[in-house]
Amino acid sequence: MAHAQPPPATESAAAARARCVQLVEYWDRYSAGKGEGGGSMDMPRKSAVSDCAAGRTEAGIRTLEDLLRRNGYALPPP
Q: Using an 8 Å Cβ cutoff, are 47 and 23 in contact?
């Protein structure tokens, strides 16, 4: 019996969720040492985490990538 493959949409949704987690962890790891995680910088992060949790991964990823770029970080590879 052959195993059914998940539809491409399911795979891309899982990849997008994983990217959200990756970018949040990257921000948390590197911004914490520089004091960039507090104050106004925390709002975009919180918004992105909320978007990702609600399934709006495209918006969450876009917010996180923008936050990282604005603070001079190179984006990690997916």
A: no
Instruction: Tell me the residue range of the domain where 72 lies.
Output: 22-78
Contact 64, 53 (CB under 8 A): no
Q: How many structural domains are present in the chain?
A: 1
> For residues 29 and 10, is the Cβ–Cβ distance under 8 A?
no
User: How far is it, in rounded angstroms, from Cα 21 to Cα 35?
Assistant: 20
The token pair at 65 is: 């990538």
What's the distance, Cα to Cα, between the start and end of the chain in Å? Answer: 33
| pLDDT, tens digit, 9 for 90 and up, residues 24-73 | 999 999 887 665 555 566 899 999 999 999 999 999 999 999 999 999 99
Any domain includes 1:
no
Residue 61 inside a domain? The answer is yes
Let me know: does 17 contact 57? Beta carbons within 8 Å.
yes
